[in-house]
Amino acid sequence: MRRQEIYSLTGLRGAAATLVMFYHFNASRLVSWVGGHILGHCYLMVDLFLVLSGFILAMTYGQRFEQGVELQSYGTFVKRRFARIFPIFFLMTITAGILIATGWMDHWPGPAIPVSGLINFTMLQSVLHVPTLDTPGWSVSAEWIASLLFPFFALLFLRRSWMWAILGAVIGLITLPVLVHLPALAHEPKRAGLMDLWNYETIYPVVRCIAEFILGVITFRVSQLAWVKQLISHDWIAPVLFFLILVLMAMRQADVWVVALLPLFILSLISRTNIVARFMGSKPIYRLGQISYSIYLIHNQMNYFMLSFARYLESIGVGQTAANTIAMFIFVAIVIVFAEMVYRYIEKPARNYINGFVLR
Q: Is residue 114, in this structure, part of any structural domain at all?
């Protein structure tokens, strides 16, 4: 049975997608150093997506697989995840291919665009070491792989002995600091920070995703404990965790600590009485959460047009900082409008159609 939606967690996804957009729009260069450091670490919002995804799938589908993974249930689950993920990914992969072919976007080294596109359509490019045409889609591919494994994670971590859940959490938490300090990544030029692991030429982004996804699954199990429910009912916990995460995001080497706090932060938002949960569950933030997937996949393609518009503003006499700031906020609004349209007229209808087909 599908559990009731937690509005604050939907809103959290919207806030995270918006912060990723500001990160890719280089907002960190336009604000003071503290705010700049925080915005410069907003790639960590992808880690929040991954932990949250494990939590939500465990909440929504976990009961189906606690006793075993039957072929029919597994197939239905995979088809529903496909309906949720693929339609917009497919659309934005096509538009990215067009923009790359016309010179508006960069093409990372790899197969020709048509070949890369076909491999992208499998959503397995992150394990085949093929570039994702729509760059943020690397995490969609990694999450798709985690989703394929989710029924087995649910079987292992949601119902069996707590020893398995504790072991899974320990492995997940140990994996991250080990991963980011691997010698192969010591001088990785494509990383903005410790946890910014996305390079399609390695398996590390998928390992990052699976470790955090497992943490999310286990976080859901923890959320069912009576003493945890009592603890997170205290309204001061969420604001304290929120402040602590911001402080750590302002530090250069604290990425792993931020990720370690994300499960606790998610738990703190289950209670709808604290100020952070109320903000995340408010109507505008909740709506951003509903369209967050579209925001996430659309915004990077707008980045190139935004930079072009900023250069135009500079050419007519607007100062560089002002031009970049104006262009950024205009294109943030454009992305949100586009995401709303895509969600209403493409994402949601396509998902409903595919799910209806599955049910038939």
A: yes
Q: Could you tell me if residue 1 is inside a domain?
A: no
pTM beyond cutoff 0.90: yes
Distance CA 324, CA 22 (A): 12
Q: Judge contact between 169 and 222, C-beta under 8 A.
A: no
Alpha helix (H) residue ranges in the chain:
7-24, 33-40, 44-65, 71-101, 113-120, 125-128, 137-157, 162-180, 204-223, 226-232, 237-249, 255-268, 275-280, 283-290, 292-315, 320-342, 348-359
User: Could you say which DSSP state residue 104 is in?
Assistant: S
Residues 6+ apart with CB under 8 A from 285: 11, 14, 15, 279
Task: Give pLDDT tens digits for 138-166.
Answer: 999 999 999 999 999 999 999 888 999 99
Residue 2 banded pLDDT, cuts 50, 70, 90: very low
| CA 141, 143, 149, 151 torsion-angle sign | negative
> Is residue 46 assigned to a domain?
yes
Q: Which residues contact 59 (CB under 8 A, 6 or more apart)?
A: 3, 6, 220
The total domain count for the chain is 1
Domain that holds residue 329: 7-359
191: left (phi over 0), alpha (psi -120 to 50) or beta: beta
In this structure, which long-range contacts are made by residues 1-6, counting pairs with CB atoms below 8 Å and at least 24 apart in sequence? 1/63, 2/60, 3/59, 3/60, 6/59, 6/269, 6/270, 6/272
Asked whether residue 2 is domain-assigned, the answer is no
Count of beta carbons in the 10 Å neighbourhood of residue 353: 12
pLDDT in tens, 37-63: 999 999 999 999 999 999 999 999 999
